[in-house]
Structures are given as C-alpha cells and as structure tokens.
C-alpha cells in the first residue's frame, strides 16, 4: 500500500430532520439536536452541552444546501467520503432515508459516498430510558426482501459518486451476523449486482463477535475495527464480573422474575482518558481484512445520560496523535483494505463529530487535513 492510497471515510448520520415516528416516540420535532441541546455536565469540567459551529443546528430537509456545504467542507479538509447510515427495516419500511435521496438527486453534493446498513432493532433504551421497549423491529424477509432492498439501492450504486472497489459497490453492514440467512443475502446482492454490470458487492462488516469469522467469508472484504468501543461501552463494574456473587444473585433473580431483571447496571458514566485510551487502539492490525476505526471525540451523555461512555480530555492535539498512530500502522499493512473509517462526521449526541463546534472551531477537521498532507509529503 502506498501511503497516499489511504482514504478517510466518515460515518454520516441522517437524523437531522423530524419524522413522524420520532415525533410519536420522543415528542414533536425530535431530531439529533434535541438531546444535544438538553445535555448537562455530569462532573466537574465536563463540557456539556456542546454547541455546533458555523453549520449551526441544521435541518437536512429544510436547508437543502447544508449537504453541499458539508461535502465541500469534508473534501477541503481531507475527508474522502461519507458512509451514510441507512435504516431499512422491512420491504415496506425505512426511516431517515430522505437526506440520502436528496443527495442522490442533487449532483452539487460533491463527495463520494456509500451506505452502512444499520440493521438493528430500535429500542427506547437508545435515548437513555430504562424502558427497553421495541420501537421498530428489524425484519429479514429472505430472498424477496433482499431483492427489494437491492432494487432500492441500485440507483445509488449506479451514481458516479458511489464508492466502488474493483467495480464493486462498497456496502457496510452494522450487525452482519444478525442476518439469519447471510449466504442467501450475499448471493442475492452479488447476483443482482453482476446483472447490473458490477463485479459483485464489496461487503464490509462492522460489529462482529467471535462466532462470526470474517476471514472464513470470502464475500466479506473488510471489517471495521469498531468492536473495541462497544465492548468498553457495555462494561460492568469489576465486582459484577461473570462468576461473582452479584452475578450469581442476578441469575437467580432472573430465574424468578424473568430474563429482563438486572442489577449492577451502571448508575454513573464510564469515563476514560482519551489520550491514554486511544494509545492502545490500532497499534496492530489483527488480520488482513481489518479496517481501522478512529474517533476524534466520544461523549454520548446527551443520549445516554448517566449510563454514558465518555472519553475526557479529547482535544485536537490528542486526536492528531490518535490519527497519526493509526495511519502509521495502516501504511505498513499492504494487504489490508486501503481505508480508515472515522466515527463520525456528525454523530453529535454520541459526541463523535468532525464538524465545527464552538469550543474548537475547525480544529477537528484541520487535524485530518494536516495528517493527510503529511502522508502525501512523505510519499513524494
């Protein structure tokens, strides 16, 4: 891999416009900004709420020029493409699809893109509630359902901005092992892609467990290194580890009162020091399909409150170190996919964003530009 072959792709969240479902679940006019605005500091020197910078509290549908501005800003500062989260629940049910559809229709949004199918059931607990009620369930309808999904995606795949690898549309899958008939899914997509003139689909896994071996699946070309963050997010206190007294008590209570009974759930944020924490990430690629994932910041307390995961002391200086370490590792892995995934462009309620804010302005983005410039200069 040449060092300047590395491309930076950033996850893109479309939840910046009201939809009837969110109105019903969370109140009229709910968007990602709702939680961002009402966030409160949970400890001394906790910087909340975070206030957006020059793009403001935008609405992706009421302000159609915003996506043009985002694309221009991203390209100017070294972000090579967006990975739009996509919420396809069933053959007749999608959510938050309008921004991507607007992007497809507006050729002035000048940035490469692809999709990440966020194939996950939505629950109330997502936004800090104790109620795990299912809001909308992820369904898998077999070959006919997959055909319908592919047919919806095909106009995007054919768009000249869509990211292709070896003439294969790049398609990320959030929870790849949740697909019950995975082979039928990939066979359907690959067959239809070939009929449309592609060489198949470039599937990339995101969150996987040990039960799903990426290396054993020839049709999966990459795995985004996002797992470590999710393992950290759901940590329980050390006194509640498997086999402990509290763990045994909980298991007995579950037997008596039901599987949903829990004790030992965190009542305060899980806090890590950013500079110390990221030093352990991406220092060694575990296999040749690994795609490193980086994040400039992380504080999902606007969404999760006291159950949040917070990386304190996240600064542009520490972010640059994190990105440089990752690039240095990636450039040595010549057989790996030539991408680094950034979480994220605009997940404000998760505290993952590159967009300008009031605290640091453009500094998050300036780091990306600086690191990319260094990659190119050292190659010359």
UniProtKB/TrEMBL annotation:
The keyword Transferase applies. It comes from the Bacteria. CDD domains: Glyco_tran_WbsX (cd11579). One of its GO terms (molecular function) is transferase activity. The keyword S-adenosyl-L-methionine does not apply. Keywords: Transferase. PANTHER family: GLYCOSYLTRANSFERASE (PTHR41244:SF1), RHAMNAN SYNTHESIS F (PTHR41244). This is Glycosyl transferase family WbsX. It comes from Algibacter lectus.
